[in-house]
Write a structure and sequence with these properties.
By secondary structure, the chain is of the alpha/beta class. The protein has five helices and five strands, in the order E-H-E-H-E-H-E-H-E-H. Helix 2 packs parallel to helix 3. The longest helix has 21 residues.
Amino acid sequence: MNKSSILVIDDEPPIQKLLEITLKSNDYKVQLASNSKDGVIAAAIHPPDLIILDLGLPDEDGQQTLLKLREWYNNPIVILSARDTESEIVQALDNGANDYLTKPFRAGELLARIRTALRLVHTSEGSVK
């Protein structure tokens, strides 16, 4: 049983629903936020094990949200965005994203990337001290 928690910050209801169904069916706990403000608040109140962040948010550019989160949030952040230019991807990775996946995406690949990010966190937690 997995039960890692994932916060999805994405303003598209069909993507939110797809991610919620996919993640819950793979035994993840899921929180949803439709904008940057709600996402940052949700992450602060109930820090998830991983955040999936869209860059095209209605209230703030996702790159700015990423920078805000990285001021205090140390767990993995996976970008899931329609933005697919190399400069956007490089900027997100330089701003602290652990991984970047473009929409449309394959659910199996996203799940594998989530497992990898969470495994790296658990491995480093176990080996550092």
